[in-house]
């Protein structure tokens, strides 16, 4: 997904429901300039670009921040606690905004979509990657069996947490189908909304422009 974004040095990215920062760290790599000669260090630092991770759970952010620092990303990433439905982010301030395996957990999806539209600069792009209920027919039986039998069983054995994995399977079935989510993105103002189905539709990337 990040390969498609065209994220460049100097740009600002926002990863909402960013959890422990896996996407943000990949963004940081994308917008990092090569280390310049010492004399131009300050100028280069200011044009490096910046990533903000926003997540409702401060404990996730803490883990992410420690991991990023361990990997050498000290200044490039800001960690902000906040709800996707009311982002503590300035309007028209980011070039790229994304939410990865997060929108399914948001109570009022349309509020979050409107917030993504608000914080993007004109010309900015929004990406959502999420599990989808619209799985290709030949896969569906096997996928349902895996989701409702194998996955909760594995959750219980490996993480001692059957309920979370049962919730995962159920919440995927409640999430809007790709065309419905596209319509909802268009309603808040996104244009040229594109749908890309991955792995027979198990996951889907939606993208749209604020023009
Ligand atoms: C499955 S994790 C995904 C984390 C990350 N995007 C990734 O792909 O590794 C879902 C995240 O959504 C966050 N979350 C749930 N509801 C949220 C909301 N309303 N606003 C912001 N974050 C939320 C959770 O705290 C959790 O960190």
Keywords:
211 residues, alpha/beta, Rossmann fold, seven-stranded mixed sheet, 8 helices, 43% helix, 24% strand, globular, binds S-adenosylmethionine
Structure at a glance:
The chain is α/β, with parallel strands linked by helices and 211 residues long. The chain has helices spanning 2-5, 22-30, 41-46, 58-70, 109-119, 137-159, 162-174, 178-188; strands at residues 12-16, 50-55, 77-81, 94-100, 120-131, 191-198, 203-209.
Task: Describe the fold and architecture.
By secondary structure, the protein is α/β, with parallel strands linked by helices. It folds into two domains: 2-133 and 175-209, Vaccinia Virus protein VP39 (Rossmann fold), CATH 3.40.50.150; 135-173, no CATH class. The protein is built from eight helices and seven strands, in the order αβααβαββαβαααββ. The protein has helices at 2-5, 22-30, 41-46, 58-70, 109-119, 137-159, 162-174, 178-188, and strands spanning 12-16, 50-55, 77-81, 94-100, 120-131, 191-198, 203-209. The chain has a seven-stranded mixed β-sheet with strand order 3-2-1-4-5-7-6, sandwiched between helices. β2, α4 and β3 (77-81) form a beta-alpha-beta unit. The longest helix is centred in the C-terminal third of the chain and has 23 residues, at 137-159. The mean pLDDT is 92. The structure holds S-adenosylmethionine (SAM). The site of S-adenosylmethionine (SAM) has 18 residues, from α2.
